[in-house]
Amino acid sequence: MTTRQIKPKPDTAEFIQFAEAPPEEMTAFDYVNFPGYPAALAEHFGNPESTIIISEIAAALIPTRGYEGVRYPDLLIAFGVNPEARIARKGYLIPEQGKPPDFVLEVASDTTGRIDETAKREAYAAMGVPEYWRFDPSGGLWHQAPMAGDRLIEGSYVPIDISQTDDQHLWGHSESLGLALCWEEGSLRFWDPVSRRYLTTYAEERIARHQAEARVRQLEEELHRQQNS
User: Fold this and answer.
1) Are the CB atoms for 191 and 198 separated by under 8 Å?
2) 188, 182 in Cβ contact below 8 A?
3) What is the structure's pLDDT at 183?
Protein backbone atom coordinates (compact mmCIF):
# COMPACT_ATOMS: atom_id res chain seq x y z
CA MET A 1 0.00 0.00 0.00
CA THR A 2 1.31 3.44 -0.84
CA THR A 3 0.74 6.45 1.30
CA ARG A 4 -0.21 9.64 -0.47
CA GLN A 5 1.92 12.54 0.68
CA ILE A 6 -0.14 15.40 1.98
CA LYS A 7 1.38 18.79 1.30
CA PRO A 8 0.92 21.39 4.00
CA LYS A 9 -1.38 24.22 3.05
CA PRO A 10 0.35 27.55 2.60
CA ASP A 11 -0.27 30.17 5.23
CA THR A 12 -2.95 32.28 3.65
CA ALA A 13 -3.52 34.53 6.66
CA GLU A 14 -3.54 38.14 5.52
CA PHE A 15 -0.70 40.26 6.84
CA ILE A 16 -2.26 43.46 8.13
CA GLN A 17 -0.34 46.70 8.27
CA PHE A 18 -1.47 49.54 10.49
CA ALA A 19 -2.80 52.80 9.08
CA GLU A 20 -0.83 56.02 9.43
CA ALA A 21 -1.69 58.30 12.31
CA PRO A 22 -4.66 60.61 11.72
CA PRO A 23 -3.70 64.31 11.57
CA GLU A 24 -5.24 65.14 14.95
CA GLU A 25 -2.90 62.62 16.60
CA MET A 26 0.26 64.18 15.17
CA THR A 27 1.35 66.59 17.92
CA ALA A 28 4.95 65.50 18.40
CA PHE A 29 6.84 67.50 15.79
CA ASP A 30 7.68 70.69 17.67
CA TYR A 31 8.59 69.08 20.99
CA VAL A 32 9.86 65.58 20.12
CA ASN A 33 10.96 65.31 16.49
CA PHE A 34 12.22 68.82 15.69
CA PRO A 35 14.58 68.86 18.70
CA GLY A 36 15.89 65.45 17.59
CA TYR A 37 15.01 63.39 20.65
CA PRO A 38 14.46 60.06 18.83
CA ALA A 39 18.03 60.31 17.50
CA ALA A 40 19.44 61.51 20.83
CA LEU A 41 17.73 58.71 22.73
CA ALA A 42 18.85 56.13 20.15
CA GLU A 43 22.46 57.26 20.58
CA HIS A 44 22.10 57.21 24.35
CA PHE A 45 20.68 53.69 24.59
CA GLY A 46 22.44 52.04 21.64
CA ASN A 47 21.48 48.46 20.66
CA PRO A 48 19.56 49.48 17.52
CA GLU A 49 19.03 45.84 16.58
CA SER A 50 16.75 45.33 19.60
CA THR A 51 15.50 48.81 20.50
CA ILE A 52 12.58 50.80 19.09
CA ILE A 53 12.49 54.56 19.59
CA ILE A 54 9.91 56.19 17.37
CA SER A 55 7.25 58.86 17.22
CA GLU A 56 3.61 58.69 16.10
CA ILE A 57 3.53 55.01 15.18
CA ALA A 58 0.60 52.70 15.81
CA ALA A 59 0.56 50.59 18.97
CA ALA A 60 -2.10 47.95 19.54
CA LEU A 61 -2.96 44.50 20.87
CA ILE A 62 -4.72 43.37 17.68
CA PRO A 63 -3.74 44.03 14.03
CA THR A 64 -6.23 46.24 12.20
CA ARG A 65 -6.39 48.68 9.34
CA GLY A 66 -8.79 50.87 11.28
CA TYR A 67 -8.29 53.05 14.32
CA GLU A 68 -10.31 51.18 16.95
CA GLY A 69 -8.04 49.93 19.72
CA VAL A 70 -5.01 51.67 18.20
CA ARG A 71 -2.99 54.47 19.78
CA TYR A 72 -0.28 56.63 18.22
CA PRO A 73 1.98 57.82 21.07
CA ASP A 74 4.08 60.89 20.42
CA LEU A 75 7.06 58.91 21.65
CA LEU A 76 7.33 55.13 22.06
CA ILE A 77 10.38 53.34 23.46
CA ALA A 78 10.80 49.58 23.75
CA PHE A 79 13.85 47.47 24.65
CA GLY A 80 14.55 43.86 23.72
CA VAL A 81 12.20 43.86 20.73
CA ASN A 82 12.23 43.41 16.95
CA PRO A 83 12.54 46.66 14.96
CA GLU A 84 12.22 44.81 11.63
CA ALA A 85 8.79 43.48 12.63
CA ARG A 86 7.76 47.02 13.55
CA ILE A 87 8.84 48.27 10.11
CA ALA A 88 6.99 45.48 8.26
CA ARG A 89 3.85 45.97 10.33
CA LYS A 90 4.05 49.79 10.16
CA GLY A 91 3.34 49.74 13.86
CA TYR A 92 4.00 48.11 17.21
CA LEU A 93 1.87 44.97 17.59
CA ILE A 94 2.28 43.89 21.20
CA PRO A 95 1.74 40.10 20.79
CA GLU A 96 4.15 40.11 17.84
CA GLN A 97 6.83 41.90 19.88
CA GLY A 98 6.18 39.75 22.94
CA LYS A 99 5.80 42.71 25.31
CA PRO A 100 4.25 46.16 25.52
CA PRO A 101 6.40 49.25 24.97
CA ASP A 102 8.45 50.17 28.03
CA PHE A 103 7.59 53.85 27.77
CA VAL A 104 5.12 56.10 25.97
CA LEU A 105 4.70 59.87 26.03
CA GLU A 106 1.94 62.12 24.76
CA VAL A 107 2.31 65.82 23.98
CA ALA A 108 -0.76 67.89 24.80
CA SER A 109 -2.65 70.01 22.31
CA ASP A 110 -5.93 71.87 22.40
CA THR A 111 -7.60 68.93 20.62
CA THR A 112 -5.97 65.96 22.40
CA GLY A 113 -5.42 67.25 25.92
CA ARG A 114 -8.52 65.76 27.50
CA ILE A 115 -8.23 62.28 26.01
CA ASP A 116 -4.51 62.14 26.91
CA GLU A 117 -5.59 62.07 30.54
CA THR A 118 -8.62 59.79 30.13
CA ALA A 119 -9.06 57.43 27.17
CA LYS A 120 -5.36 57.15 26.33
CA ARG A 121 -4.43 56.58 29.96
CA GLU A 122 -6.93 53.73 30.13
CA ALA A 123 -5.75 52.31 26.81
CA TYR A 124 -2.07 52.27 27.73
CA ALA A 125 -2.85 50.64 31.07
CA ALA A 126 -4.85 47.95 29.25
CA MET A 127 -1.89 47.40 26.91
CA GLY A 128 0.37 46.92 29.93
CA VAL A 129 2.67 49.87 29.24
CA PRO A 130 4.83 50.24 32.39
CA GLU A 131 5.18 54.03 32.14
CA TYR A 132 2.91 56.63 30.57
CA TRP A 133 4.10 60.25 30.52
CA ARG A 134 2.33 63.46 29.52
CA PHE A 135 3.91 66.76 28.53
CA ASP A 136 1.94 69.99 28.20
CA PRO A 137 3.95 72.80 26.58
CA SER A 138 1.25 75.31 27.56
CA GLY A 139 2.10 74.80 31.22
CA GLY A 140 -1.21 73.20 32.18
CA LEU A 141 -3.87 74.70 29.92
CA TRP A 142 -4.48 71.40 28.10
CA HIS A 143 -3.45 68.93 30.81
CA GLN A 144 -4.01 69.26 34.52
CA ALA A 145 -0.26 69.79 34.98
CA PRO A 146 2.70 70.77 32.78
CA MET A 147 4.36 67.38 33.34
CA ALA A 148 2.87 64.12 34.62
CA GLY A 149 3.80 60.47 34.60
CA ASP A 150 2.19 57.20 35.66
CA ARG A 151 3.75 53.87 36.60
CA LEU A 152 1.78 50.64 36.16
CA ILE A 153 1.40 48.78 39.45
CA GLU A 154 -0.79 45.66 39.60
CA GLY A 155 -2.65 46.68 36.47
CA SER A 156 -3.39 50.27 37.47
CA TYR A 157 -1.51 53.51 36.94
CA VAL A 158 -0.07 55.25 39.96
CA PRO A 159 1.21 58.84 39.59
CA ILE A 160 4.97 59.36 39.54
CA ASP A 161 6.31 62.07 41.84
CA ILE A 162 7.04 65.32 40.02
CA SER A 163 9.47 67.78 41.60
CA GLN A 164 9.31 71.51 40.97
CA THR A 165 12.27 73.87 41.26
CA ASP A 166 10.23 76.93 40.28
CA ASP A 167 7.36 77.84 37.97
CA GLN A 168 9.44 77.09 34.89
CA HIS A 169 11.29 73.93 35.93
CA LEU A 170 9.69 70.57 36.76
CA TRP A 171 11.04 67.04 36.54
CA GLY A 172 10.24 63.41 37.29
CA HIS A 173 12.30 60.22 37.18
CA SER A 174 11.58 57.49 34.64
CA GLU A 175 12.57 54.06 35.95
CA SER A 176 12.03 52.60 32.49
CA LEU A 177 14.56 54.95 30.89
CA GLY A 178 16.85 55.73 33.81
CA LEU A 179 16.45 59.39 32.85
CA ALA A 180 14.64 62.40 34.25
CA LEU A 181 11.95 63.97 32.10
CA CYS A 182 11.98 67.74 32.51
CA TRP A 183 9.60 70.57 31.71
CA GLU A 184 11.94 73.51 31.12
CA GLU A 185 10.21 76.79 30.28
CA GLY A 186 7.75 75.01 28.03
CA SER A 187 10.30 72.68 26.42
CA LEU A 188 10.79 68.95 26.94
CA ARG A 189 14.25 67.86 28.10
CA PHE A 190 15.82 64.52 29.06
CA TRP A 191 18.39 64.60 31.88
CA ASP A 192 20.96 61.83 32.32
CA PRO A 193 21.78 61.55 36.06
CA VAL A 194 24.90 59.47 35.30
CA SER A 195 26.63 61.92 32.96
CA ARG A 196 24.87 64.83 34.68
CA ARG A 197 23.87 66.47 31.42
CA TYR A 198 20.87 66.86 29.16
CA LEU A 199 20.56 64.77 26.03
CA THR A 200 21.52 67.22 23.32
CA THR A 201 19.09 68.64 20.80
CA TYR A 202 19.86 69.17 17.12
CA ALA A 203 20.24 72.90 17.79
CA GLU A 204 22.75 72.31 20.59
CA GLU A 205 24.73 69.87 18.44
CA ARG A 206 24.82 72.43 15.64
CA ILE A 207 26.09 75.17 17.97
CA ALA A 208 28.74 72.84 19.43
CA ARG A 209 29.87 71.86 15.93
CA HIS A 210 30.17 75.49 14.84
CA GLN A 211 32.11 76.33 18.00
CA ALA A 212 34.48 73.40 17.41
CA GLU A 213 35.01 74.46 13.80
CA ALA A 214 35.70 78.03 14.89
CA ARG A 215 38.22 76.78 17.44
CA VAL A 216 39.99 74.69 14.78
CA ARG A 217 40.22 77.71 12.49
CA GLN A 218 41.61 79.78 15.36
CA LEU A 219 44.27 77.17 16.12
CA GLU A 220 45.19 76.92 12.43
CA GLU A 221 45.57 80.71 12.25
CA GLU A 222 47.76 80.76 15.38
CA LEU A 223 49.92 77.96 13.97
CA HIS A 224 50.25 79.81 10.66
CA ARG A 225 51.36 83.00 12.46
CA GLN A 226 53.92 81.10 14.51
CA GLN A 227 55.34 79.44 11.41
CA ASN A 228 55.70 82.79 9.65
CA SER A 229 57.02 84.82 12.58
Assistant:
1) yes
2) yes
3) 98
